[in-house]
Amino acid sequence: QVQLVESGGGLVQPGGSLRLSCAASGSDFSFYDMTWYRQAPGKQRELVAGITWGGRTHLAGSVQGRFTISRPNANTVYLQMNSLKPEDTAVYYCKTESSPNVYWGQGTQVTVSS
């Protein structure tokens, strides 16, 4: 059974940093792409960053230059978030898929506030 568990969220002041982690289990993720999404209150879930199984990355325009995504091994994905802004406040979710199945984690709350 595939399971994704996010961690690392919390309360941080504007300009601060956090590193989110996504731990995947239940399958061989060597050939899975992994993505981070976020959902702010009253807004739709949006793509933040993704990394392919081959290591190619992409970032949403709103976070380029501030966030990075990395994958130290097949089962772990990090989202390093620097220069955080209040508008980054959201629940952050890890996602992967193996057609036709899509898997989501339970999310981790990030709050950016002074």
Task: Give structural attributes.
114 residues, mainly beta, 7-stranded mixed sheet, 4-stranded antiparallel sheet
Order of helices and strands: EEEEEEEEEEE
Shape, principal axes of CA atoms: globular
Which segments are poorly predicted (pLDDT under 50) over 5 or more consecutive residues?
A: none
Mean pLDDT score, rounded? 96
What is the count of β-strands? 11
Assess the beta-strand content as a share of residues. Answer: over 45%
Structural classification: mainly beta
Number of helical segments with 4 or more residues? 0
What's the N-to-C terminus distance?
A: 40 Å
Largest sheet: 7 strands, mixed
- Integer-rounded radius of gyration: 13 Å
Characterization of this structure:
With 114 residues, this protein is mainly beta. It is 0% helix and 54% strand. Strands 2, 4, 5, 6, 9, 10 and 11 form a 7-stranded mixed beta sheet that branches. A hairpin with a 6-residue loop joins strand 4 and strand 5.
Summarize this structure briefly.
By secondary structure, this protein is mostly beta strands. The chain is 0% helix and 54% strand.
How does the SSE layout of this entry go?
Layout lengths: L2 E5 L2 E3 L5 E8 L8 E6 L6 E6 L5 E3 L7 E7 L2 E6 L8 E9 L2 E4 L3 E5 L2
Parallel strand pairs: 2-11
Antiparallel strand pairs: 1-3, 3-8, 4-5, 4-9, 5-6, 7-8, 9-10, 9-11
